[in-house]
Amino acid sequence: MRGATHATWVAGAAAVALAATACGGGSDSGGSSGDSGAVFSSSWGDPQNPLEPSNTNEVQGGKVLDMIFRGLKRYNPKTGAAENMLAEKIDTTDSTNFTVTVKSGWKFSNGEPVTAKSFVDAWNYGASLKNNQKNAYFFGYIEGYDKVHPDSGTQTADTLSGLKVTGDRTFTIKLTQKFSTFPDTLGYVAFAPLPQAFFTDHAAWIKKPVGNGPYEIQSYTKGSKMSLRKWDAYPGSDKAQNGGVDLKVYTDNNTAYTDLMAGNLDLVDDVPAAQLKNVKSDLGGRYLNTPAGIIQTLAFPFYDKNWDTSGALKVRKGLSMAINRKQITDTIFQKTRTPATDWTSPVLGEKGGFQDGLCGGSCDYNPSEAKKLVQEGGGLPGGQVKISYNADTGSHKEWVDAVCNSINNALGNDKACVGNPVGTFADFRNQITQKKMTGPFRAGWQMDYPLIQNFLQPLYYTNASSNDGHWSDKDFDQLVNQANSETDTAKAISLFQSAEKVVRDNMAAIPLWYQNGSAGWSDRLSNVALNPFSVPVYNEIKVG
After folding, report:
1. Greater confidence, 273 or 381?
2. How far apart are CA 427 and CA 424, in angstroms?
3. CB-based contacts of 441: which residues, under 8 Å, 6+ apart?
């Protein structure tokens, strides 16, 4: 998901995620093998905001929304491919104008039909500046966005001129530029439809959200638990194979793991680092560790002239070569991370644009070459590198210290690199957005949708929404524009890969490692799998 400004930063992050499952107790729990009425429990955290699709860009809220909503597209839980869900078809002849036909027979769980208007009203609400939705930028490609959500001043329109309802089940979309893979972005939850009840009694809807997915929200007590139950009348093919999920709130995933081991919890979808050495012996075959659409990087403040020179380019490449990625991922992360060799993710696959080894020697651990490049580049700006990170969530201190130790060893200077902890994620983000970084800083990206475009354009395009380092390159921008305009998918991906080579040649950010998703579960559960967004495929989990 959006990393930077939009909090998809993997640590305290946002995502396009699915749902975490939950264990029960009482009459809802238990059952025979594959009991479709049995409820299970999972670790969870309170969402940051009310569960509006266009205002949720963090993992915990995203889990719930992907349980209670279905959009025009859905990402295949195995391959990540964008497949039609509520879309009967999405037609275009020019990659700028699209005609959407919504399938018939779909309803919200309150009985309202899902129509073209359900989508158009929801998108207009999400884009509107007055509604202050965190995911508003997702509608930025649609014509009229500059009027409903101007960069400054007040909005001069309430609806997007590029959206038109043309029938009960049809509507048209007009973009401001060619974007051949735009339909594939429509599986993201910001594009979910909304019932009229959302608009007629917003307060009631916020208290108990109503969607059109395989689960309904039964109850929610902040700080304790959210109970979701199977919606029996759900018309989709991906019906829940269980009776529901109780999402139990934890502020420490170590406590969740302890509860799993004690039989008080059925599923932990983020095994804590402290338990990684024990998890296989603890759980045996009830543990998953698989690649996810997440990459961790070090970004640079290109607004600081010391980091934006020809010499600094050599320094950035030298620092990359001074990092022993394999040793860090093996020891600190117990192989739940994989050394990065490009700026995307292996979950894209070769056909989707992932290029193993694209980074080349610049991502290989080479202490002697690292030291040489840093010296040739004029040395470290200010004589020392301080890697900034938020100290309140995740195990960032451990890996930052390990990265600095690796750099110090390579450069033969035990003071060359130090960690620079910032108290909270909010403080960290504020310093970044206020351009206060003076050296490299922790950056991460969890994909919004499985397209190579999503790993490149939001992060490296000039003035893009999550381009926190404010790197800019005309060749990169031009290649991205050409890729978006290309109607042949293979050619578009090839152009994006060319753009990624510009990122490589300039070391616009140092790729560190790809993050894996992990999960551990009780012997009550079976058929547990993780999707490409690193979360369990909850509707397919069986209990008993």
Report:
1. 381
2. 5
3. 298, 299, 300, 301, 387, 388, 389, 428, 432, 468
* Token code pair at residue 133: 């939705």
Q: In angstroms, what CA-CA distances link 462 with 299, 365, 452, 469, 490?
A: 15, 30, 17, 10, 24
CA 27 vs. chain centroid, Å, equals 36
Q: Of 223, 238, 114, 123, which Cα lies nearest the Cα of 172? A: 123
Q: For residue 393, what pLDDT is reported?
A: 63
Mean pLDDT over all residues of the chain?
90
Q: How far apart, in Å, are the Cα atoms of 250 and each of 71, 400, 541?
A: 29, 26, 21
Q: What is the pLDDT of residues 86-140, one digit of tens each?
A: 999 999 999 999 999 999 999 999 999 999 999 999 999 999 999 999 889 889 9
Q: Which of 245, 208, 187 is nearest to 537 (CA)?
A: 245
Angstrom distances, CA of residue 451 to CA of 181, 188, 354, 362 = 8, 12, 10, 24
Handedness of CA 451, 454, 456, 457 (dihedral sign): positive
Question: What is the 3-class SS of 402-443, one letter each residue?
Answer: HHHHHHHHHHCCCCCEEEEEECCHHHHHHHHHCCCCCCCEEE
pTM for this prediction: 0.81
CA gap 488, 180 in Å, rounded: 8
pLDDT-based confidence at residue 276 (cuts at 50, 70, 90): confident
R_g of the chain computed on alpha carbons: 23
As a whole number of angstroms, the distance between CA 460 and CA 462 comes to 6
Q: Which pair of tokens denotes residue 496?
A: 């994006």
In Å, what is the CA distance from 297 to each residue of 14, 341, 415, 464, 511?
16, 11, 22, 17, 4
Whole-number Å distance between alpha carbons of 128 and 110: 26
Q: 3-class SS at 450?
A: coil
In this predicted structure, what is the pLDDT of residue 32? 38
Burial 298-336 (b: 16+ CB within 10 A, else e): bbbbbebebbbeeebbbbbbbbbbbbbbeebbeebbbeb
Tell me the average pLDDT across 277-281.
90
pLDDT digits (tens, 9 = 90+) for 155-167: 999 999 999 999 9
* 450 contacts: CB under 8 Å, gap ≥ 6: 75, 80, 81, 82, 293, 347, 348, 352, 532
Q: Which residues of 199-228 are buried (b: 16+ CB within 10 A; e: fewer)?
A: eeeeeebeeebbbbbbbbbeebeeeeebbb
Task: Give tens-digit pLDDT for 2-43.
Answer: 333 333 333 222 333 322 222 333 333 333 345 778 999 999
What b/e readout covers 455-486, taking b as 16+ CB neighbours within 10 angstroms? bbbbbbbeebbbbbbbbbbeebbebbbbbbbb
